[in-house]
Design goal:
Oligomer: single chain
Order of helices and strands: HHHHHHHHEEHH
Radius of gyration: 22 Å
Length: 250
């Protein structure tokens, strides 16, 4: 039995499935408590049903992106572990990035053919440790931060000037995107800094198509007041980028 077979064994399904089931039960409990709280507050039942229906509808397409992430990682990490990570707390861009970085540091690749038990243990540990700090920090400083945030909103009521947190998040996102695009462009450069286009240009094509799609969805949401697109824009942009990659290699 190979390592990949062990990672998709019944034992792994049982362990990961039990955790996912526990989280699902907690979600149902909160759903019931929220419904009862709404009834106690005198909220209209029809409006609450409409909110539940809208939430379910808007969750379907974005979950397609998560499913694609599970499929993408299943070839190297098996099905149960990516299913657990992306069902409970993980994010698609985070899981794939950290798994790939951990594999490279081990002198390997994120592939089922080269995956070993030690490599999987290291990758799984790194994926877990790096993301748990959000839960730890929010449990310690969350209440204080929310109180400060509320005061900031009251002091800046009516002001359109972005806060430092908004600027920091924007700068961090731009830096992350620039790092990815830089690596993609670097793959096309050889010799003395000349573009030869001998490398893999697919990532740049995917990034361009996904960016244009996201810009289109954002414009429709803001200018045409199609706010319902907000829940679908990310997943739809990902799917269009992947479709572009497939079409480019036909």
């Amino acid at each position: 039995m190979t390592v990949l077979d062990q990672l998709s064994s019944g034992t792994m399904y049982l362990i990961c499935g039990a955790i996912v089931a526990f989280v699902a039960v907690v979600c149902v409990i909160f759903l019931v408590r929220a419904w009862r709280a709404g009834k106690a507050m005198g909220m209209d039942t029809a409006r609450m049903k409409q909110a539940v229906t809208a939430s379910v509808t808007f969750s379907i397409l974005p979950s397609v992106g998560i499913l694609l992430g599970v499929i993408a990682l299943s070839g190297s990490l098996g099905i149960p572990w990516p299913w657990l990570r992306l069902s409970v707390i993980g994010a698609l861009h985070y899981e794939t990035q950290v798994a790939q970085a951990a594999a490279e540091q081990l002198g390997s690749t994120l592939s089922g053919d080269t995956m070993t038990a030690d490599a999987f243990s290291t990758i799984a540990l790194l994926m877990s440790v790096c993301i748990m700090w959000g839960m730890i920090l929010i449990s310690i400083f969350g209440k204080k931060y929310l109180a400060r945030l509320s005061r900031g909103k009251e002091n800046k009521a009516g002001s359109e000037k972005p806060s430092f947190a908004d600027k920091a998040m924007t700068a961090m996102f731009i830096g992350m995107v620039s790092a990815y695009l830089g690596s993609y462009i670097g793959a096309l450069i050889s010799g003395e800094g000349r573009f030869t286009f001998r490398g893999d240009w697919t990532p740049l094509l995917v990034a361009a198509v996904a960016a244009l799609a996201m810009a289109g969805f954002t414009a429709l949401s803001e200018k045409k007041r199609m706010r319902w697109l907000d829940g679908f824009s990310i997943a739809a942009s990902m799917l269009l980028g992947m479709a572009a990659a497939v079409l480019a290699h036909l």
